[in-house]
Amino acid sequence: MTILTERMALNPGGPTAVVKDTIDIAGYPTRAASRALAEAPPASAHAAVVEGLLAAGFEICGKANLHELAFGTTGINHWTGTPANPRYPGRIPGGSSSGSAAAVAAGLAEVALGTDTGGSVRVPACCCGVFGFKPTFGRVSREGVMPARSSLDCVGPFAADLTMLTRAMRAIDKSFGALPQVTDVSLGVVPVSAHPEILQALEQALASSGFVLGEAPLPGMEAAYKAGMVVINRETWQACEGLLASDLVGDDVAGRLRAAGETSDAALAEAEAVRQAFTAEVDAALQCHPVLVLPTMPDYPLRLDEAADTRAVLGMTAFVRPFNLSGHPALSIPLEGAAGLPVGLQLVAAKGDDELLFAVAQALTARLESPVSDHGVSHDIA
Hints:
Blueprint: E1 4-10, E2 16-20, H1 48-55, E3 59-64, H2 98-105, E4 111-116, H3 122-128, E5 131-134, E6 154-159, H4 162-172, E7 186-189, H5 196-207, E8 212-215, H6 221-240, H7 251-260, H8 265-288, E9 291-295, H9 321-326, E10 330-336, E11 342-349, H10 354-367
Parallel strand pairs: 2-3, 2-4, 7-8, 7-9
Antiparallel strand pairs: 1-3, 4-6, 5-6, 5-10, 9-11, 10-11
Helix pairs in contact: 2-3, 6-7, 6-8
Protein name: Amidase
Organism: Stutzerimonas tarimensis
Domain Amidase: 18-357
């Protein structure tokens, strides 16, 4: 089962990084793990984020596999192979940035870049037991990233520890500054329905965190989740419809694409109205609590044999996709539930407060007897 689709050694000697195969690396084709793009020509230039990694001294050692055309949540790919979940064998790696998360979890690279349109960094980070971050929309350049246009998609890093996650962010976002003090920060706990062991793991982590906690309801989350899918469908259809004529797109993704093509202008207009309302709702909650907290996923990752129908597992993104719609930064911290399976603790902050999320994550993980410490996670950020 393939984690990397290409191997290379650009800028050897530094900390290692892999890059999702929707991000251009000069001299290599960008295939988005699709047979429909098997004959794509080599990219003529590096994506801006690749330039950032190289300038910061990272060695790029490969391109990472993904759910075909970045249009799926499980990471299952019948053409390139499905990346094995290194820490939780037999479970899905999550999508769409499956190979990026799996590469970090397997120790093939110290950091990885993925893209997150509806949870595609945070979901695989949760499934594979690593850290994953979706920046504020628009903060990190998407130049040289597929699709060329998106109102949701963000390039974001994965790492096994916060030190390296921070280093990766500073490489791809030159404006990423010093981490603020979090002494007076309170956390707003967003009430959600989830597996009891997921909620228990979060409750235990938060009880040990030392932060002042309050409740922060977001009643518009379900509407935002549905609206986000409408926007994803329209924008993915616009980017990928031309590939269907080749008859080389996998059946599961092709079926979803055809359905996406039926998205009406009226549905899109309704979704944009929900975007505006939900963004205001999140902004208001953040006025009371500078950081919101909720699970990354509502349940444990499915076993591979349970996840064949991508459309049946879209609920995996119920707690992540709304924040793509609103554009707020969100970070997934790896925990484990009572069953020894992965749980993600998701932090959300105001737009532009990306550094605050890292500071809160640093403080929170340092105060926990974290299960991920068994995987060599460091709690110190230089």
